[in-house]
């Protein structure tokens, strides 16, 4: 859907929700219900949300990494301030869905559309500390960490692919980030190849190699911990087309200008799962485009000629030009999807920043 249509659809819904007197012009309640349902459906399309998540926010916080990312990308009103920061327009954090095996991690990537272009996938795991024991040698200070892709889950012995290896100090604690782009891209193309990750650690003690001596924080029995492993996916979903401007009505004496319009996710009934922001200022364009079109009306040459034709009544069908957004900016929204994953999305052309006669 063209962004301007998206924009009109939002405006329509807001008018319906905010100003019930307008509805009296719609003869039947049924008709209103139909319009609201259609508006909600279009709105879901605009925000690219297939299934509406549960009404209530899960009782947990989004990963700090996602909150920090949101704050880098957008201001508190959701206005995108650094559009180039994300390579694509969608970032998802998926939580580990295996609650039993300490070294095994499984992520359900079904929310990624097959038409989405995978740009980057990061496995983020929190290495837990090992109590300090005095070490004799330099090498005993180190731990080797291997990240594998499992090629089948259930069978033994497990077939696996090494994705990444690194040496870490035994005694530090903190986040480790592994590039798993290639593997996850394959999983997205064919989800039946997703058998999860295995992380092994080996450590040279005094005399022998010890395995899996060090652990990574892990969701156990559904217990939430801010240090639990998660997978971050950066994708591009270019279904958001750039705009072609549609006219809005122009029968006011006030000249064409930007007007306040706050889109409140609470009023739309989406407050339960949108984490940030609470709503955003979309603005709208309203006002007359009468001859002569002053500088501030940012008229196109075409609009200027049209307004002259209209004023001189050179052709009776020609109306005044239309007052429409001529600059739009993007917003960013972070929400829980229906699988309780945290998603950050950039939406193009959602805020009118100036109006003009076109
Ligand atoms: C992944 O999530 C989807 C959507 O919630 C669900 O239908 C599917 O069964 C899940 N897959 C696995 C392997 O758990
Ligand atoms: C991650 O891996 C992919 C594919 O293996 C590679 O193209 C990309 O450059 C890597 N990214 C980083 C940041 O190392
Ligand atoms: C997906 O992967 C499975 C298992 O490797 C394979 O049997 C199947 O043919 C693949 N499907 C497609 C569409 O490539």
From TrEMBL:
Where does this protein reside within or beyond the cell? Answer: Secreted
Q: Name one Pfam family in it.
A: TGFb_propeptide
What PROSITE patterns does the database record attribute to this sequence? TGF_BETA_1, TGF_BETA_2
> Where is the TGF-beta family profile domain positioned along the sequence?
239-358
Extent of the signal sequence: 1-23
What keywords sit in the KW lines? Disulfide bond, Glycoprotein, Growth factor, Secreted, Signal
Q: Which residues form a coiled coil?
A: none
Q: Does the keyword Transcription regulation apply?
A: no
- Gene Ontology CC: extracellular space
* Family, similarity comment: Belongs to the TGF-beta family.
Classification via PANTHER family? TGF-BETA FAMILY, TGF-BETA FAMILY PROFILE DOMAIN-CONTAINING PROTEIN
Name of this chain's protein: TGF-beta family profile domain-containing protein
Q: Whose protein is this, by species?
A: Gopherus evgoodei (Goodes thornscrub tortoise)
**Gene for this chain:** LOC115655207
């Amino acid at each position: 859907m063209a962004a301007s249509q998206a924009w009109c659809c939002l405006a329509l819904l807001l008018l319906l929700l905010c100003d019930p007197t307008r509805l009296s012009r719609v003869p039947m309640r049924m008709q209103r219900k139909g319009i609201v349902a259609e508006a909600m459906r279009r709105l879901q399309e605009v925000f690219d949300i297939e299934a509406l998540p549960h009404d209530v926010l899960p009782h947990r916080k989004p990963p700090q990494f996602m909150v920090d990312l949101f704050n880098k990308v957008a201001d508190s009103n959701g206005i995108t301030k650094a559009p180039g920061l994300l390579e694509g327009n969608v970032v998802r954090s998926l939580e580990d869905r295996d609650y039993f095996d300490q070294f095994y991690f499984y992520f359900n990537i079904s929310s990624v559309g097959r038409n989405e272009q995978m740009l980057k996938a990061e496995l983020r795991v929190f290495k837990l500390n090992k109590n300090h024991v005095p070490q004799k040698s330099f090498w005993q200070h180190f731990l080797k960490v291997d990240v594998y892709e499992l090629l089948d889950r259930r069978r033994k012995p497990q077939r696996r692919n090494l994705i990444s290896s690194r040496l870490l100090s035994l005694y530090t604690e903190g986040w480790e980030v592994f590039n798993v782009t290639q593997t996850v891209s394959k999983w997205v193309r064919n989800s039946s190849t997703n058998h999860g990750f295995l992380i092994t650690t080996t450590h040279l003690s005094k005399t022998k190699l010890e395995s899996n001596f060090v652990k990574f924080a892990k969701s156990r029995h559904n217990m939430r911990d801010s240090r639990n492993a998660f997978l971050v996916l950066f994708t591009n979903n270019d279904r958001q087309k750039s705009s072609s401007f549609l006219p809005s009505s122009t029968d006011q004496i006030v000249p064409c200008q930007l007007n306040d319009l706050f889109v409140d996710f609470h009023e739309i009934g989406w407050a339960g799962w949108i984490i940030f922001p609470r709503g955003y200022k979309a603005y709208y364009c309203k006002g007359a485009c009468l001859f002569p079109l002053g500088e501030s009306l940012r008229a196109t040459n075409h609009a200027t000629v049209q307004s002259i034709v209209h004023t001189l009544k050179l052709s009776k069908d020609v109306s005044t030009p239309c007052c429409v957004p001529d600059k739009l900016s993007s917003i960013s929204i972070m929400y829980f999807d229906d699988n309780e994953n945290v998603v950050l999305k950039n939406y193009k052309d959602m805020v009118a920043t100036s109006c003009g006669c076109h």
